[in-house]
Prior knowledge:
The protein is an alpha/beta fold and 344 residues long.
Amino acid sequence: MSPTLLVHFFGILSIIIIVGSSSVGYGIDKKRVIGLGLGAIQGPDYDDTPNPEFLNPSWMASIPDDQPLSEVTMPGTHNTMAVYGGVYAECQTWSLASQLQAGVRFLDIRVRHVNGNLTIHHGVSYQRAHFGHVLEGVSDFLREYPTETVLMRLKEEFSETGNIYGAVVDYIHRYAHWDLLWHSRLVPTMAEARGKLIVLQEFSGPDLGMRYGSLDIADDWKVPTLLNVEEKWQSVYNHLEAAPTGNKAQIFLTYSSGAGVLAYPRVIAQRINAQLYDYLRAKTDLNQRLGIICMDFPAAPIIQMIIDFQLREVRKRSQAFNPVPRKASLKHVISSLRERRIKH
């Protein structure tokens, strides 16, 4: 059997497995929308349809300015631009704009470097885009939503020049602007990060932003077969459990994504996203930092769950410092001043 036929065979086989098991085995009430081709599913944890179910483009506006970015729990996508190339290469179905509008704040960008050109790749699969398209998309988004920030892992892929710094700088000047970037290795506060692209630099050269290796990262992406899914979930679980008590000055990054010859991204995401959904649902009433949770094919509800988790923590913190509701706060201050004046 040819390699192409093998891909199609395992693709069909895995879709059958997915559809047959997607509604059982994880204790989740899954209302799934099937459409737009065989295997297209929109559920609470997994979505491989073209558009998010709903959007949340400005959720960071509620985070206090003095909160360090390392204490923010946020959704991210693995291989953000990997929407082409077949079942072994595709990790997302939403466009970059749709991901940002849905609430994703961590991007995983891979560039191939040839003669100063930076094209977007996932392995051998060209993603019909270049780095300038990414910069324009992020710049446009932050211009429209200046309360937000975007973190971007940037690395070389499918080329081995080891020298992409000059090309990256050239693209920034051509397709964005220098002041768009956060120019420091230090973790910013939300006030410092708003409206900024924070490059998590995974290549040599002078600092463009933070270093990717400075994060506390769990990325056990090798999942050879479906028999290894539980091992993958255990890695995700362990890192998420460590995040709340870990170094609060360090950003935690947990990848729920994985792939293997007989277990490509869609199949892994179907199973891991479901367990992640259960895990987060059980923890939404707790006040703790989980860091960045980076997914393949996330659905709007699980993105919203991650966002809400953070906002609940922020509300508790805000209420601890100021138990008076915001709308009443000014009236309360004026009343207190009058009382003090009368007493004196």
